[in-house]
Write a structure and sequence with these properties.
- Helices cover about 65% and strands about 0% of the residues.
- The chain contains 19 helices and 4 strands.
- The strands form 2 sheets. A two-stranded antiparallel ribbon has the order 1-2. Strands 3-4 form a two-stranded antiparallel ribbon.
Length: about 575
């Protein structure tokens, strides 16, 4: 660990904090339907899309209709993306003449991109045509991110409105998220990436002759446009198999910084949107602070573990940090920072191989995802995930003082707590259930690249990543098999939509409640005590659910490494 390393980490944190308020203010105006600088350009398009959809911005939906619209839209997306992949060989923009995608892989990829996960059991440049990348995958990068933002805004309205029956209009929130937030930032960001050297073309692959006289095929294509939305929308699906470690996806230190900031930008700003819409920005800053503390703690542990290096290598007289699986141009600091960022959010893009991290360094990305990725989290998903923990924290505080818990004037009663717990317990059920099956069935163990606790961590990481809608891989697991394609696809759908339904049911209950005035007995939710309680609830719930699995994987691997044993 070096001073220069910590300065790089502080620079990233400073940029994110500086973006929270201005971006949050702009997003609040967008979701409230207020006029913005982009209104003259996008307002006619917005109205035209409403007419096509048969709705209008004045029409609002009950939570059941809002949720049904989301589910219908997402199911249609799965079917369309599946069809594009299965027909890829006869569709245009396929200069490499790539064939149709097998059924199990097509299902996995369709579920993955619609579920804002972007788990990839394939190499992008050798599997997906330009048409599939642009019309299929990139489009889902936009609309799956926008869907998550819509759910978050609907839940915010549930806390902000009093004695209401509607939560907004899904089609309106989806449209505004894409038109006014995701698309403009991506256009500017894509141009910046092209300036930095990221390819953006429809050319055929280049065949080059190396100095040794061998033939090498150099893939290219519409890369920059997909890179910006994959990070901004916390999708993570790389155009190339090596993802953000590939020099065409991430050619410079500046693009690496832009990628990292883009991953956190919208998720962090949504905490400010929450504060503004409920009428108290301090509420948003309290949630952001809790997220920030958890993030900094994760970075510190991961950076320390990687900077300390491998004791088995040190025993050979070689000193230094652990550079296995890392790009030399990013080093230990930026590799560890990127790993924590991408798993604190539901992004999944990687610039280093997490399976090559030290056991404790690789454990931090696992923990981030096990907690539901509420440390900033995915666009929308991070905020509504953290608000579930807020509900549980308020309930715990109410038990301690012996009065009905309240949050923002809304009484938190049995239904809200039950829905919050149901949403939070769905994640470990899928994560641990699928992992248990994979490590005892031959069809699951046959794909593991390592024995012992590291092999267990490979399978555990895969199902944790899928269920948490992250999409990053530990490495070493050959996941492109019918077993893993199908089960990981199911885990993705469970983690995305089985969590959203109880969240929306809770929102429907909250929006109908009256607001009670603050009294001397009301638990303050903007101070250090509440922030500490919220952090404690997040960690305790995660610890109770996942510590045994962590003990079987990275913890025992760390102890074995100290004892000189490898796997």
């Amino acid at each position: 660990m070096t001073l220069n390393g910590w300065l790089q980490i502080l620079l990233f944190c400073g940029i994110v904090i500086a973006l929270v308020k201005p971006l949050g203010g702009y997003m609040t105006r967008v979701f409230n339907g207020e006029r913005t600088l982009l209104a003259p350009l996008f307002r006619p398009i917005e109205r035209g899309l409403y007419r096509i959809a048969g709705t209008s911005e004045s029409e609002e939906q009950h939570w059941t209709a809002y949720t049904a619209a989301l589910l219908f839209f997402s199911l249609s997306g799965v079917a369309l993306l599946y069809a594009i992949q299965r027909l890829q060989g006869v569709l245009p923009l396929n200069p490499a003449e790539l064939g149709n995608i097998p059924a199990d892989l097509a299902f996995n990829t369709a579920a993955s991109f619609v579920g804002n996960t972007n788990w990839q059991s394939y190499g992008g440049e050798s599997t997906m045509s330009y048409f599939t990348q642009m019309v299929g995958l990139a489009v889902q990068n936009f609309v799956s991110a926008a869907s998550g933002m819509a759910i978050a805004v609907a839940l915010i309205r549930a806390f902000a409105r009093k004695s209401a029956h509607t939560l907004g209009n899904f089609w309106v929130d989806l449209t505004r998220s894409v038109l006014y937030i995701l698309l403009p930032i991506c256009v500017v960001g894509t141009l910046f990436l092209v300036w930095q050297g990221v390819p953006q073309n429809l050319s055929t692959y280049t065949v080059a002759t190396t100095l040794e006289g061998a033939q090498q095929t150099i893939a290219q294509g519409p890369v920059a446009s997909q890179m910006m939305i994959k990070h901004l929308g916390t999708n993570g699906g790389g155009f190339f198999n090596a993802n953000a470690a590939h020099p065409f996806e991430n050619p410079t230190a500046l693009t690496n910084l832009i990628h990292m900031v883009a991953i956190f930008a919208i998720g962090a700003a949504l905490t400010n949107v929450f504060g503004r819409m409920v009428g108290n920005e301090r509420q948003g800053w309290a949630i952001f602070t809790a997220m920030g503390v958890l993030f900094v703690a994760g970075v510190a542990v991961c950076y320390w573990a990687e900077a300390a290096g491998n004791p088995l290598v040190h025993a050979l007289g070689l000193q230094g940090g652990n550079m296995e699986g890392k790009e030399a141009r990013f080093g230990v600091t930026l590799s560890a920072l990127f790993a924590v960022i991408t798993t604190a959010a539901s992004c999944g893009a990687v610039n280093a191989m997490h399976g090559s991290f030290m056991a404790l360094g690789g454990m931090i990305p696992l923990i981030n995802m096990m907690l539901g990725e509420v440390v900033i989290g995915g666009v929308g998903a991070g905020l509504y995930g953290m608000l579930l923990f807020v509900v549980i924290s308020i309930f715990v505080a109410g038990l301690m003082v012996g009065r009905t818990p309240e949050y923002l004037g809304k009484k938190i009663e049995a239904k809200e707590v039950k829905m919050a717990m149901l949403a939070l317990l769905i994640l470990p059920l899928a994560m641990l259930g699928f992992t248990a099956a994979a490590v005892v069935l031959e069809t699951g163990t046959a794909s593991m690249g390592n024995a012992g606790p590291h092999g267990f961590s490979e399978a555990l990481y895969a199902y944790v990543s899928a269920t948490a809608n992250n999409g990053s891989a530990f490495g070493g697991l050959s996941a492109n098999t019918p077993w893993y394609n199908v089960t990981l696809g199911l885990a993705i759908l469970i983690g995305r939509f089985f969590m959203i339904i109880p969240v929306m049911a809770m929102a429907g209950s909250l929006v109908a409640k009256k607001a009670t005035p603050t009294s001397s007995g009301t638990f303050p939710t903007t101070g250090p005590l509440f922030i500490g309680l919220l952090i404690g609830v997040v960690l305790i719930m995660g610890g109770l659910e996942f510590f045994p699995a962590l003990a079987l994987g990275p913890i025992v691997e760390h102890l074995a490494t100290i004892a000189g044993q490898t796997f």
